[in-house]
Amino acid sequence: MRHTAHADYALRVLLYLRVAPGRQGSVAEIAEAHHISRNHLVKVVQRLAGAGIVTTARGRGGGVRLERDPAGITVGDVMRTMENDFAVVECLGPARFCRVAGVCGGRDVFARALDAYFAVLDEATLEDIAANDQGLRGALRLINGPGGR
């Protein structure tokens, strides 16, 4: 299974915010730190804000801020927020055109596999995946503040 770039970017936004001074930053700073499109990040941040994971504010002192405690944000929450299709095989999705649907045992196997996948993602929190504060700050050039300044 492969997730969309938006799901990947959502995790990157949250990692940045988790280790950033004051746990906030601008979309431009986050895009620059990760070398990714600012336009894509705007959409990602809007979706995260809609889910109550981050808050946004315009103007001086504004930006993106973690709304919830990193220990309470699971990777599973983020994936469910950012993705809308987890049908790894057609019979798990809303449209079922497979000729062997209903007589094949594959649907149950893939459904259990998906359940196991989310069980792992639901155990991992933002706090867990961002545990290496110093390493993340260095990689994102946040040692001396946003943008490495």
Report on this structure.
- The chain is mainly α.
- It has one domain (5-143): Arc Repressor Mutant, subunit A (Orthogonal Bundle), CATH 1.10.10.
- It has 7 helices and 3 strands; from the N terminus they run αβααββαααα.
- The protein has a 3-stranded antiparallel sheet with strand order 1-3-2.
- It is elongated.
- 22% of the residues are buried.
CATH architecture: Orthogonal Bundle
CATH superfamily membership:
Winged helix-like DNA-binding domain superfamily/Winged helix DNA-binding domain
Shape, per Cα inertia axes:
elongated
Q: Main beta sheet: strand number and arrangement?
A: 3 strands, antiparallel
Structural class: mainly alpha
Task: Provide the helix percentage.
Answer: 40-55%
Whole-angstrom Rg: 18 Å
Strand content: 5-15%
Query: How is the largest sheet built, in terms of strand order?
Result: 1-3-2
Organism: Actinomycetospora endophytica
Cofactor: [2Fe-2S] cluster
Keywords: DNA-binding
InterPro entries: TR_Rrf2-type_CS (IPR030489), Tscrpt_reg_Rrf2 (IPR000944), WH-like_DNA-bd_sf (IPR036388), WH_DNA-bd_sf (IPR036390)
Features:
single chain, 149 residues, mainly alpha, Arc Repressor Mutant, subunit A, three-stranded antiparallel β-sheet, 7 helices, DNA-binding, TR_Rrf2-type_CS
